[in-house]
Every structure is written in structure tokens, then in C-alpha cells.
Amino acid sequence: MRTVMKSMMLRALRDLGEVCKVLVVVGVPGALLLFHVWQEYQITQAGYAIAEVTQEHRDLLEEHKRLTVEATMHGRADRVALTAREQFGLEPARPEQIIVLDVQGGPEEHASLNPGAVFTR
């Protein structure tokens, strides 16, 4: 009886050893494969995040350019108006000082487009 139990134990241990070998042969490459897939997923997600931040950076640069031009133009108009007032005594035109011209005809009759045109009053 002891020998039968002993042989069964040895056979169970051999079977356990075989199962462990199979698990190592299949499990290690499987774990490496899963790690590789997870790593590629992380790299892809980082790429998407970088693309998003890069686009946001480009948008902010474009807005900065637009605001810089706007601020420059606004500052110029204020400086021109200030210089006109201080140095030349000019003031903004009052509504009654504005004369509206009614141009008859199309652009083909405009003097700058037709150098040979003669206009009389």
C-alpha cells in the first residue's frame, strides 16, 4: 500500500512539474505579449495627448499674433489721434462736417480706373 501511495505521489509530482513547465512556456510569453500591448497602448495615448497639446499651442500662438496686431493697431490709432490734437490742433470730425458724395455710375467710370476720363462739374 505504501508503494502504491508513493508511486501515486511521484506521478502527481511529475504531472505537477509538467503543468508548471507548460505554464512557464505559455505564461511567460503571454505575459510579455500583454505587457507589450499595454505599453503600445500607453504610447498611443501619449501621442494623442501630445497632438492635442500641440494643436492647443498652435491655436494660442495664432491668437497671440492676432491680439498683438490688434493691440498694435489700436495703439497706433490712439497715438495718431493724440499727435493730431497736440501738434496740429485737430479734433475728430463732427457729423455736420461730413460730406457724403453720391457717385453715379459704376466703377468703370471711376477716374482711377479710367486714366483718360475727363470729369467736369
UniProtKB/TrEMBL annotation:
Pfam families: FtsL (PF04999). InterPro entries: Cell_div_FtsL. It is found in: Cell membrane. GO terms for cellular component: plasma membrane. It is a single-pass type II membrane protein. One of its GO terms (biological process) is cell division. Keywords: Cell cycle, Cell division, Cell membrane, Membrane, Transmembrane, Transmembrane helix. This is Cell division protein FtsL. It comes from Lujinxingia litoralis.
